[in-house]
Design brief:
about 300 residues, mainly alpha
Length: about 300
Amino acid sequence: MSRTTANLLLLLAGAIWGMGFVAQQTAMDDIGPMLFIAMRFLLAGIAVTPFAYAEMKRKKITSMSGEIMRFKGSFFLVGLAFFLGMSFQQVGLIETSVTNAGFLTALYVIMVPIIMVTVLRVAQQMIIWPASILALAGIYLLSGGNLASLNGGDILIIICALFWAAHVILTGRIGQKTDLPVTMATLQFFVTSALAFISFGAASIFGLGESLPSSAQLIGALPEVLYAGLFAGGLGFTLQAVGQRYTSESAAAVLISTESLFAAMFGAIFLGERLQQLGYIGCGLIFAAILMVELMPKKAEAKPAE
């Protein structure tokens, strides 16, 4: 697969997430955050499992359980980072606005190259830095350039961004190491669902604000669960896992951050929403960041940072 095709897959993932962002918030009108995460990613895992088996067959791997045991630590680490990022985001959405959440989540755009240099000691191409800053500035302007005072939900979203940055890095590095992106995505869904069910059970038992919903509430949340599970979950994160095998972690962070841009576009198309002037400037900055990433030289071999 060419780097251009991989980047297009990451852009498509951003578009799918952009459409699904509202579903994450509206679902909590009927069910709690942990149950929503558990249900959507159980559905995502079931939906993607046949493709994982097909991938294993194509790689001529006869035992899926044997391959899972071989990379069990790596796959669990990806799933854990995914669960923590999703959990902090979902709970944070209870207290903060969609605008704040969209901008603060996008902090992973700049966190990824910083972690790559400071923690992993991997030098980044210079163009990544202005592209990351442009994307971050674009998302801020897309939100209206009016970030309210930080509350408890905002702090949770900032923590979520840190785990999303870790997830982007782990997805790229472990995906290339195992060469099983669909299998990795499938297992991260099941790990996340299992951890969310455990968290939901603990919250219900100890009275931590989440209880078993009624059948009417489950039916009310079903459309959001279906979209978030099958499309935003199963399809979107699998596209991310596949696309990141052919581009750098920092470039991927810029490309998938376009979920905010696509959310605004779909809001205008389907809901009649219109951007303010600052929002259009923000769209231009995000597109500029995408072009910078797409036109930069092919990723060189990783080398230690000085």
